[in-house]
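ok new one. same drill as before - structure tokens go in, u give me an amino acid for every spot. 462 of them this time. try not to just spam alanines like last time pls lmao
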């Protein structure tokens, strides 16, 4: 780009040093905004024409030129020059070269400050919808897996110790619930960011009679930002988006952690397809769930992006500051990582089998029916705290004698709790326990089947 083309630098007495050019450029990563920059520029030029700030012929030339540039970028024929600094100036310079003076009028009543704020919001609207779509596809994969195991049992864990028996499908659907919250959070973020900063200029608006509501309507924004000072510097939505990605990443990481454990020889609950495992460079017997381990690690990258974004925001004075150029590095990185992790999780879920026979064979371990026995005593009129103590003593007795609760004699039960009757054996054993779950949302087969029906309907409607 020539010195004349870089009109915004004519205030300066010297050409920028090569180090400065490399240090300030963002073209190496903000090119993905080009579609949104062009759409925003066309809307801005259309508004200028309606306000008689440019002619209709000039608007037509600007629009045609921008469309041609978009096609060139899409086809890989566009030459990017880092001297332009960013995608906004690269497109404007190309437009001026292509159509001449009308191109020089495009930036009327507009600053790169409100321009980039608009572009990022437009991009993020689409990105959120794409992520919500990927969340939905992962939820569908979870529902398919849950339906496959709507009656098969597994132990649930608290403190990583065996707790109560549950249906495998209920466990799988717990992740669908977490993902639903993630999708809703992203939707809330999209709603909050859907206001137009375009027309706020550098910080104070413009003395020209522009129509901000016009461009907001053209670009599909729900409203305009009401304060120009805040509009050009607001990146709250970036931090919120990265937080949403971070929490989504935490949920995926928790699934990954479970399945890494479950695929180990010590648990041996699941088998992940070989296509999503690796082996060892030294130990030929190994099947390592590396993609899940990387998923845990990539969640740390999301947290790092969030901390970086918050740090960028916290130290700035009012108005636009160049620090905000760094927002896109962390914003784009978080989006890309989240997309990839959602795709990978869906693939793993779709190619994982629970080893139901092996799991069932181990359900007698850990006194999974202890809580059900305490609740049996409650139904017999025993206060829960007293029932809790009775069952605790019985578990200790069983441990000493190498027995299960269901193997105790009725006489032994009565010695500890006279209220016990012969029907006590109907509530003991994992299969009996899950059949007796009655509370809404419990982890039994009937509740799981209702949840599966709900998710099928909900995801179909979405």
């Amino acid at each position: 780009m020539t010195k004349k083309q870089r009109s915004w630098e004519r205030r300066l007495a010297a050409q920028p040093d090569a180090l400065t050019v490399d240090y300030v450029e963002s073209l190496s990563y903000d090119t993905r905004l080009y579609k949104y920059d062009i759409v925003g520029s066309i809307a801005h030029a259309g508004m200028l024409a309606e306000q008689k700030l440019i002619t209709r012929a000039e608007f037509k030339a600007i629009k045609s030129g921008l469309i041609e540039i978009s096609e060139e970028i899409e086809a890989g024929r566009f030459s990017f020059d880092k001297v332009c600094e960013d995608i906004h100036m690269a497109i404007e310079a190309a437009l001026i070269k292509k159509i001449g003076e009308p191109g020089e009028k495009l930036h009327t009543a507009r600053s790169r400050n409100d321009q980039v704020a608009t572009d990022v919001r437009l991009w993020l609207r689409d990105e959120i919808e794409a992520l919500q779509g990927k969340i939905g596809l992962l939820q569908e994969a979870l529902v398919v897996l849950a339906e496959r195991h709507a009656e098969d049992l597994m132990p649930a864990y608290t403190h990583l110790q065996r707790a109560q028996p549950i249906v495998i499908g209920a466990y799988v659907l717990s992740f669908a619930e977490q993902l639903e919250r993630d999708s809703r959070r992203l939707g809330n973020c999209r709603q909050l960011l859907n206001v137009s900063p375009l027309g706020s200029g550098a910080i104070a608006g413009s003395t020209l009679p522009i129509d901000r509501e016009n461009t907001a309507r053209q670009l599909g924004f729900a409203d305009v930002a009401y304060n120009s000072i805040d509009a050009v510097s607001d990146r709250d939505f970036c931090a919120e988006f990265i937080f949403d990605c971070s929490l989504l990443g935490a949920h995926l990481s928790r699934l990954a952690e479970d399945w890494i454990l479950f695929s180990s020889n010590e648990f041996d609950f699941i088998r992940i397809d070989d296509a999503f495992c690796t082996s060892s460079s030294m130990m030929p017997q190994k099947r390592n769930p590396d993609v899940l381990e990387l998923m845990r690690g990539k969640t740390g990258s999301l947290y790092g992006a969030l901390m970086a974004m918050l740090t960028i925001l916290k130290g700035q004075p009012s108005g636009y500051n160049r620090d905000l150029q760094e927002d896109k590095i962390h914003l784009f990185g978080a989006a890309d990582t989240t997309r990839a992790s959602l795709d990978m999780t869906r693939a793993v879920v779709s190619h994982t089998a629970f080893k139901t026979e092996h799991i069932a064979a181990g359900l007698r371990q850990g006194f999974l029916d202890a809580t059900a026995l305490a609740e049996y005593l409650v139904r017999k009129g025993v206060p829960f705290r007293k029932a809790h103590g009775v069952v605790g003593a019985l578990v200790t007795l069983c441990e000493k004698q190498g027995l299960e609760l269901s193997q105790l004699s009725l006489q032994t039960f009565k010695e500890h709790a006279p209220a016990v009757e012969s029907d006590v054996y109907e509530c003991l054993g994992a299969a009996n326990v899950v059949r007796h779950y009655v509370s809404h949302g419990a982890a039994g087969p009937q509740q799981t089947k209702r949840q599966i029906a709900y998710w099928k309907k909900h995801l179909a409607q979405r």
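The longest strand covers residues 161-167. and btw The radius of gyration is 31 Å.
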